[in-house]
Amino acid sequence: MLSGRPTNSLCLLLEWSTIHRDYKAESKRCFILYLFNNNKTFVKTMKILGIPVTELVSGLGGILFLWSAINQFLPKKFQYLFQKWCTHLVCFIFPRIYITFNEYCEDGRSNEAYSCIKNYLGTKSVKKAEYLKAEKSRNSKSLEFTLDEGDEVVDEFRDVKITWVAYQETIKDGGGGGSRNGRPFEKRYFILKVHSRYRDLVMEDYMNFVMKEGNAIEFKNRKRRLYTNNKDDDFFWKGRWSYINFQHPATLDSLGMDPEKKEKILDDLDSFKNGKDYYKKIGKAWKRGYLLYGPPGSGKSTMIAAMANYLDYDIYDLEVTTVKENAELKQLLIDTSNKSIIVIEDIDCSLNLTGSRKKNEKGSEEEKRKQSDETEDDKNKSKVTLSGLLNFIDGIWSACGEERVIVFTTNHVEKLDPALIRRGRMDMHIEMSYCKFEAFKILAKNYLGIDEHPLFAEIRELLEEKNVCPCDVAENLMPRGKSEDHVKKCLVRLIEAIKATDCWI
Ligand SMILES: Nc1ncnc2c1ncn2[C@@H]1O[C@H](COP(=O)(O)OP(=O)(O)OP(=O)(O)O)[C@@H](O)[C@H]1O
Questions:
Q1: Residue 49 domain boundaries
Q2: Domain check: are 376 and 241 in the same one?
Q3: In this structure, which residue's CA is closest to atom 7 in ligand 1?
Q4: Count of the separate structural domains present in the chain
């Protein structure tokens, strides 16, 4: 509509329902009028509603000058009333709603909505905003971009334009937010502006969309964590759990196991991860239990790390023996987050689960007699019962979150109470077995970078006769070397080791 270089010093945004026919009547809504410092000819001749622009601008300037002069003499109360009246007038001409999202809630806690919006606008502003802020928090993997103070970005949702502005101000008296103790602080907030006719759309669909997207961005950008319920002062604390950043290189690809079995596990994990609607439809909490069993060194812990990497979940490593009672177990469960794997390793050693449930919970007469002779040591022992653990897995409290995986590992599956591992609780039983030839080939590829070797035939025969754990195989294939000689040396060493074991199939 108008062309020419915009000035830096004067930029007027005028919104008219109609404009003068001389200046393209088809453009009836909002337009931006750039005025030039040097009074360009066409600005001089331009008219709006029949009034020359130059006159309009000088008129506006006059009004502003008059207003500031009157302002000096008007009592504060009248100034306030006048401003209020002007705001109402503007709102009447351009009806809009304004929603403020503060960084902190009234009670001083951080506002989840604010961080979701910040994440969401970060991705938008990278493409659109002129001024950006970049920061990297301890818990994020990469740089996060956010809108700088006073900058705005226009988002579009179902053809509706929504404007976001970032604000920051220093509050000197430390008010607003319980934890400030009167100290000055930076108040940050976003304001959303939209035409009032889209109120419902924005408050429901759009805000739900922004929250969902913001959460997803935060989840993707976060560093994963490994939590433990053991008290460790070197770790960070979150509720009843302490944690460190989780970095484990294990992947399902690098795990030495039967490829068919691995494929089944992958399919199962995929259908779990994408199963939100399915679980909702069948009325079941969105969680899944895996029981990993097999001899020591068969890769159970490695499998958990690989699963966490595959699903992009945090891990909660639960040490049941340090949990005092069932109520504490419940609290720990409540403190876990969604999209996580809760692990109880060596479950057979964690509790006395070998006996029948009845006996464990109610106790025989003899046990009751023993209880009265309890020593101080006994008092510190975990009083978690099998029933408490069963409730932990699939009681009513287990449904308080979603997208949770529970993994038990054991070297002695036969020792476990059938109730603990029945399908529905432990949905998939995965045997982590001794190393077979197919699993060996995966390890040889990973550790030595080879697919074939003349010594493979002998190794295949030996693995059909003897039980060798993948950890022993892996140990003999290390360290990595590229030369033919080195590969041969490793394979020969492995052959000797297999021959030396007396664990026949
Ligand atoms: N199937 C496997 N594939 C690749 N590496 C393996 C496998 N099994 C074991 N390893 C290697 O052996 C080491 C020990 O494995 P891991 O701790 O996972 O075994 P585990 O079954 O959990 O043992 P435990 O029952 O004693 O806890 C790991 O460092 C891992 O690299």
A1: 11-86
A2: yes
A3: 299
A4: 4
Q: Does residue 153 sit in the same domain as residue 242?
A: no
- Look at residue 81 and tell me whether its pLDDT is greater than 70: yes
pLDDT in tens, 386-440: 888 888 888 777 777 789 999 999 999 988 888 888 888 899 999 999 999 999 9
Q: What does the pLDDT look like over 4-57, one tens digit per residue?
A: 333 333 333 333 333 333 333 333 333 334 444 444 454 555 666 667 767 777
Listed residues 197, 221, 245: the one ending a domain: 221
Determine whether the shortest distance from the Cβ of 297 to ligand 1 is under 6 A. yes
Q: Is 433 in the pocket of ligand 1 (CB under 6 A)?
A: no
Distance CA 99, CA 63 (A): 30
- Mean pLDDT, the chain, as a whole number? 79
Counting atoms of ligand 1 from 1, which one is nearest the CA of 255? 3
Give 359-410 as a DSSP string: HHHH--HHHHHHHHT--HHHHHS----HHHHHHHHHSGGGGGSSSEEEEEEE
d(CA 369, CA 19): 96
Instruction: Determine whether the shortest distance from the Cβ of 435 to ligand 1 is under 6 A.
Output: no
Task: Give the dihedral sign, CA 170/174/177/181.
Answer: positive
Tell whether 278 is covered by a domain: yes
Task: Quick: pLDDT tens for 198-225.
Answer: 999 999 899 999 999 998 888 888 888 9
Based on the fold, state whether residues 420 and 308 are members of the same structural domain: yes
180 and 52 share a domain? no
